[in-house]
């Protein structure tokens, strides 16, 4: 999903490009310029092998684990539904907004005033760690839909 229409900020691997206000940034395995591009599947000794974990993992569980890992990344303020068609993982009884399980896995976030590329990389690594616990290997695309900037204390409404 790199190359969003309209102005924004695109983070690819170790670099970020700013093209105007209304930040939209993406980073994915496909656009990463160096380093490993897939997580190594591992299984914990008490939970069976990776194949069994992948078979037991329903979308709700995987998406919930990804949500927890992404929200734990410093600088992430929330998951977002995307800017067009809602990005979400749907399952019987609910949905988790901001995460789409597929090829690639999409994660849409809002971040605070922090460097985009390093935070996007931390998010991607966190998602890959979760996927590895379930014996899954998928490319991960991180989209920064918004940046939550603090309002200056001297600002007044209407002036």
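^ Assign residues to that structure.
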């Amino acid at each position: 999903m790199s190359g969003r229409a309209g102005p924004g900020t695109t983070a690819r691997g170790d670099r970020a490009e700013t093209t105007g206000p209304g930040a939209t940034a993406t980073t994915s395995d496909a656009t990463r310029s160096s380093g490993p591009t897939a997580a190594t599947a591992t299984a914990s000794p008490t939970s069976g092998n990776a194949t069994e974990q992948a078979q037991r993992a329903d979308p709700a569980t995987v998406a919930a684990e990804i949500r927890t890992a992404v929200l734990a990344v410093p600088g992430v303020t929330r998951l977002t539904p995307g800017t067009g068609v809602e990005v979400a993982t749907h399952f019987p009884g609910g949905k988790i907004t901001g995460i789409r399980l597929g090829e690639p896995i999409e994660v849409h976030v809002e971040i605070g005033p922090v460097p985009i590329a390093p935070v996007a990389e931390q998010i991607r690594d966190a998602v890959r760690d979760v996927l590895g616990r379930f014996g899954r290997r998928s490319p991960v695309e991180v989209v920064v839909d918004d940046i939550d900037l603090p309002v200056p204390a001297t600002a007044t409404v209407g002036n």
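The longest strand covers residues 140-147.
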